[in-house]
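Quick one: structure for this chain?
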Amino acid sequence: MKFVIVLVALFGLALAAPAAQEASIVRSDSNVGAEGYDFAVETSDGKAHSEQGQLKNIGTEAEALSVKGSFSYIGDDGITYTVNYIADENGFQPSAAHLPVAPVA
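Got it. Here's what it folds into:
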């Protein structure tokens, strides 16, 4: 019985939630080549994402893709959050003012 009550309550909350508006793309640029790429996209709801990638050490055993980019969005609190990142042979490395930082050992 408790399960039914909880299920009905969750269903009611879902119906009461404001309807999500669909966002449209307001800007989209891209360039893809044999040795790299870049793109940028912005949507009407304030989201943006841009990225550049290029091959490093082409033709060697150490050939790898190196990527730099950023994305941003408007949070529920109205603040625009931006994350910058690098992804390469050292892994994914995000940085942003709102992300937690590991303590220094």
